[in-house]
Amino acid sequence: MIRRTRTLINLMKEVSLDEVREKASMPFALVITGPSRELRQKTTNLLSGGASYTSGTLIEHDANTGWSPVFERASLVLYVLDHGQVRQSDLELLGRIARIGLPIIVLLLNAAALVGDQNTLDRFNSMIRDSHAKIKLVRIQDSIETLLRTILQELDAFDIAIARQLPPFRPIVANQLISEASRANAQFALMSNIPMVIPIIGNIAAASADLLVLTKNQIMLVFKLAAVNGQDIHSGRKILAEIIPVVGAGFFWRTVARELADLMPFGVGAIPKTIIAYAGTFVVGRSAQYYYSTGLQPSNDLLRKFYSDALERARKLFPKQDTEPKEQTD
Description:
Protein name: DUF697 domain-containing protein
Organism: Thermobaculum terrenum (strain ATCC BAA-798 / CCMEE 7001 / YNP1)
Strand order of the largest sheet: 2-1-3-4-5
Strand content: 5-15%
Number of helices: 13
């Protein structure tokens, strides 16, 4: 284990944290406007989860005061309608915001439908349909997940920074990062010199260079998850030293093969490389996210569930080893 840990530490030196730090520190501003102070504050609390955040990240604005220079600093505007009421003044402010090219989410927090005179509603619906105006209508009923996902779709380049500042976004961003990294490693394995199947015992030294690439990608995933969860990302060595006891087995491909073989119904002597690449990365990501979000190391039963989930997902993505992976929606 000591030798393997030393190998990971050496690999870490070849992985730059600069890209992760840059993404984690990208400045963004979500302006929350609307006529109701109560609903603006409620929206702020939904997005922050009650946690503290950097000044200027969430900015409340009273729509009753009309235009403000604050919109010129915004990355995205959330326009919270009061009981679904659409007023002429709302249309005017929405139109002016749309003209500077900002993405806008019109939010219904406590109403199932829009309310207003027919002419105003017709103009509002026309504005929503306008391909040049980046306006989306979101209704919140039981869950805010639709709103969080819509914000991330509009500001996908800021995903790590948003999640680092605003905890409610963390599970969604973490799952996306884990899914993307798992698929990317599986796709790399598919095109690499790694043998089509990896034996549970035997020599795989010929593929060691390509296997190291997969491990580097896993390390980068761990760094990103640390950033997403608000961890100190100054020292990559410190991050890795802390997480190795949590996810160590997932970094070693032979161990991954053995874990997957135990889940096979008839026992096998080798596992397809795409399945191993996907599952190993998935388990590393899930284990790291569990640790960062709870402060606990996953139990053996939970790790087994991670492997089982990974195997099921990988089989759906790679039903045949000679085909490209199909896209999967989380």
